[in-house]
Amino acid sequence: MIQKPRGTLDLLPESTPLWRKVEQACFAVSRRFGYEEIRVPTFERSELYHRSVGEGTDVVQKETYDFSDKDGRAMTLRPEGTAGVSRAVIENSLYAGVMPLKLSYLLSCFRYELPQAGRSREFYQFGVECFGAARSACDAEVILLADGIFKELGLSPRLEINSIGCPECRARYLEALKEYFSACRDQLCETCRGRLEKNALRILDCKNESCKAISKDAPLITDYLCADCKTQFDEVKELLDAQNLVYTVNPRIVRGLDYYRGLVFEFIDESIGAQSTLCGGGRYDGLIRSLDGPDLPGIGFAMGLTRIILCLEQKGEPVPAQKPDLYLASTDPESAKAAFTLAQALRERGLCATSDLVGRSVKSQMKYADKSGAGYVIVLGDEELQTKRARLRSLRDGTEQVVDIEDPDALKKRIQEGN
Ligand code: ATP
Ligand code: MG
Question: Which CATH entry fits the domain spanning 326-418: 3.90.380.10, 1.10.10.920, 3.90.1170.20, 3.40.50.800?
Answer without folding.
Answer: 3.40.50.800
